Amino acid sequence: MRSNENTLLLGKKVVLVPYTAEHVPRYHEWMKSEELQRLTASEPLTLEQEYSMQRSWREDTAKCTFIVLDAEKWQARLSTTEESCMAGDVNLFLTDLGDPSLGEIEVMIAEPSCRGKGFGTEAVLMMMSYGVTRLGLTKFEAKIGQGNEPSIRMFQKLHFEQVAVSSVFQEVTFRLIVNEHERQWLLEQTSHVEEKCYGDGSSESR
């Protein structure tokens, strides 16, 4: 999605940046993991296919993707690459043509050393806030594998409620309706987030 290609979101634990070609090699290494393939229902791709996927995601108006960076590493880095700060990704899919206010959200903290630190929770909150304030979303869905207990617990803590179970796909669907009360709660949870311009000047904003 080109609407977020110049957007950087700075939180306490994570930084969200657009998915660019610079991030592809690390992302490709992550997706060689059989565990991540299972959790994300993904097939392994070649590096060239991964670059092609990144380009298509950038152009896809129905898909908003941010790479999740470790904020502490990102803010401390001097000569290291942004790739070395990568922790995972967070996505919004705007695929319901009959309801443009609905977004399907998913998050992946792929870097093992970054798990269990609240990165996924903050990334989801930041992405939801972006979806509400920038994309006009008022409903979110999350489809999670039945065995992915950490993700299920996380979305439940974020006020999502279970609405469906698919034994065929072995996944559970959670939904959150963003009424005025939920909107205020979400904005409070993300009041610390700074939106900056991503690009040549991003390093100067630190």
From TrEMBL:
Top EC group: transferase
Domain of life: Eukaryota
Keyword line: Acyltransferase, Transferase
Domain N-acetyltransferase span(s) in chain numbering: 14-161
InterPro entries: Acyl_CoA_acyltransferase, GNAT_dom, NAT9-like
SUPFAM superfamilies from the UniProt entry: Acyl-CoA N-acyltransferases (Nat)
One Pfam family from the record: Acetyltransf_3
Annotated catalysed reactions: N-terminal L-methionyl-[tubulin] + acetyl-CoA = N-terminal N(alpha)-acetyl-L-methionyl-[tubulin] + CoA + H(+)
Keyword Cell wall biogenesis/degradation listed: no
EC number per UniProt: 2.3.1.308
GO MF terms held by the record: tubulin N-terminal-methionine acetyltransferase activity
Signal peptide location: none
Keyword Acyltransferase found: yes
Role: N-acetyltransferase that mediates the acetylation of the N-terminal residues of alpha- and beta-tubulin.
Family, as annotated: Belongs to the acetyltransferase family. GNAT subfamily.
Protein name per the record: Alpha/beta-tubulin-N-acetyltransferase 9
Organism expressing this protein natively: Odobenus rosmarus divergens
